[in-house]
Amino acid sequence: MGMADGFVRRHVAGLAAVLGVASIAVVVAAVRGVIPAGVLPQAPAWFIGAIPPLNAVISAAAIGTILAGWRWIRRGDVAKHRAAMATTTLLFVAFLGLYLYRLVVHGTTAFPTTGAVYTFVYLPVLIIHMGLAIACIPLVYYVLLLAGTRPVSEIYDSNHARVGRVAASLWLVSFALGIVVYLMLYVLY
């Protein structure tokens, strides 16, 4: 184990917090328009238009990998659990990268109505989706750092399982609500 590995191992919670805050800061900067569109390569309009349905598919796949990861760890198959959760993380990174790219170069998509559906259904679903997505970021960093800095035998004595259950639950609900947001914004209305 090198010095960097030892440092990460000793400071998992602090590093997860720093990485979480930094990641959330990037998201907030994109949402607030701080990141100029000119710093990113310009994709064709068909690609920009394909991002929302692609992200819905990514979300559905992530729900599947989270559920598979839970199933495999309950069966004691650590290797398959690790693969499923690594895949979920990659799917989340792909989702977030595509979402932020579209947000920076295209902007937000306004909900087409301002009535009761917007106020009492769409907006609460969107707020809960975004809140859970933000809340799970430092938790995911935490469980990934725990898993990446310890042998499997030590992970069972750590907070990995307890925090992982919370992170996975938040992820599941956030991904599911993200699909609802997509359906409301691009399909139903």
Automatic annotation (TrEMBL):
Transmembrane segments: 12-35, 47-70, 82-101, 121-145, 166-188
Organism superkingdom: Archaea
InterPro entries: DUF420 (IPR007352)
Organism: Halobacterium salinarum (strain ATCC 700922 / JCM 11081 / NRC-1)
PANTHER family: DUF420 DOMAIN-CONTAINING PROTEIN (PTHR37692:SF1), HYPOTHETICAL MEMBRANE SPANNING PROTEIN (PTHR37692)
Name the record gives this protein: DUF420 family protein
Keywords carried by this UniProt record: Membrane, Transmembrane, Transmembrane helix
Species lineage: Archaea, Methanobacteriati, Methanobacteriota, Stenosarchaea group, Halobacteria
